[in-house]
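Why does residue order matter? Because the sequence determines the fold. Keep that principle in mind as you read this record.
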Amino acid sequence: MSVYFVTGIGTEIGKTFIAAILIEALNADYWKPVQAGDLQNSDTDKVRALISNNSSVFHEETYNLTEPMSPHAAAKIDDVEINIDQISIPETSNNLIIEGCGGLMVPLNDKHLVIDLIQKLNCEVVLVSQNYLGSINHTLLSIDGLKSRSIPVKGIIFNGETNQESEDFILKYSGYNCLGRVFHENDISKETILKYTSQFSESFNL
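Structure:
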């Protein structure tokens, strides 16, 4: 069993889209430990609707917060304190994709960030980058954060229009592998997910 934590260089980077692709490619389970807002159409609901196989299990969130904001702030509104010691990887014999909330430095409470949760769960990271003005800086900051904690990284997935100069520099600086490239379309369907599965099956040596 392999466990991968999908995180991004910021919010709205395409983590949920990519998580769905990886679930289909790896025939994996899905788990989002902390959901903040959009509880009637959560990321778990969105991913479930995009998966074609019948074997993936969608594990229950540890924390469901009502407000679409940073988890530490949303938790205060709901009169909840997020305790990362209460967040444990669900039992499964299947591969598992874990989706984080926002980027690495998003606060979960007054002491802990998403990167602390990744370190606590002790799993390998898939870093999602997106090409836009300033994304090199955001990606390299994320890379340095992961390296400073000695967190293992499976590789980087680039989302959006290809910018070869940016991608080449990021890969050379980091020493990480490029696992693949996707283009986040406006209307994502099961067919959209399926067209990427062979690319990522090869990247993960399946």
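The chain is about 35% helix and 20% strand.
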